[in-house]
């Protein structure tokens, strides 16, 4: 009997690890890699939704609820209260999930607390069902990647919902400029179906994030999936590395933010204006703006990853400014050369006359 219990304990521990891994995959596939400051809230929302589903099952089927908590060996006097505790959880957890979901959007976009709590109930139902489905689908999608020996790399982005289609085209164009021709397609149905469930229940509970129609850019060797807060490049290691390098170099002007804090986003807004000045050949305005951005970078307090992105974008804009200045100098240089030649014309005529007199003198001497 002891051996059977030990085997069961080992099986359940292994199953727990597998479920935890699958749950992590499901969360990443559904939402992408969210900014670090919001990861804690996303984890709380996801865990709360699944916990609510467990509590609901425990209320509907008391035997199952007792079985689920039996792993912690509750005392006998506590068992009658298990169903009551789960019933309280069914009522309270969605309110907490609704409040936590507001922490994932900017303060100015957050709804009132009462409204957020009300939204928490349909959102919890939708997210719980979605995560359960994704926990099943995620390992299947991972097996496909393993079969092709593909890896995935995540590029942090923040795509405003109203600019999602524009950003997809910007990424496609950047890849094409770097020699990677891709075609836009809808995301796999294993992502579309759970997302549709979440959207139907939750609507715009996350400030419009959940109802963005996911798309991916597909080629024979690489796929790029665009989440509202993540860009996932999948393929062989060399193809993924090249694709990310292309985006790093080519994706300079975009409607998406490549940083995730408000302060860094404001710098990106200034860089976007600088690129507009460069496109309009306003070299002086672009130079002044880039100088201001460079001073701001010296004082900006953001994570190093964000600072590096801003620094790289500034260098790319400064390189473009040098090209623009060089193009502007060429006409001026030509004008200066012509002016110098015109000014030296009398001297050239005098030199030619002097050379003629010397030739005559040499002829007489000969």
Short description:
The protein is an alpha+beta fold. It has twelve helices and five strands. Among the domains are: 2-144, no CATH class; 259-358.
Count of individual helical segments: 12
Please state the average pLDDT score: 76
Rg, rounded, reads: 32 Å
Question: N- to C-terminal separation?
Answer: 130 Å
User: What structural class do you assign from the helix and strand content?
Assistant: alpha+beta
- Residue share in helix: over 70%
How is the main sheet built?
5 strands, antiparallel
Shape: elongated
Question: What oligomeric state is this?
Answer: single chain
State the low-pLDDT regions, or none. 1-26, 206-210
Order of helices and strands: HHHHHEHEHEEEHHHHH
Taken as a percent bin, the fraction of beta residues is: 5-15%
Strand order of the largest sheet: 1-5-4-3-2
Total beta strands: 5
Tell me what the structure shows.
The protein is α+β, with helices and mostly antiparallel strands and 366 residues long. Among the domains are: 2-144, no CATH class; 259-358. It is 71% helix and 7% strand. It contains 12 helices and 5 strands. It has helices at 2-31, 36-60, 62-69, 79-102, 113-148, 164-177, 189-202, 237-250, 262-279, 283-299, 304-343, 345-365; strands spanning 151-155, 183-186, 215-218, 222-227, 230-235. The chain has a 5-stranded antiparallel beta sheet. β3 and β4 form a beta hairpin. α1 (2-31) packs across α5. It starts with a helix and ends with a helix. Residues 1-26 and 206-210 have low confidence and may be disordered.
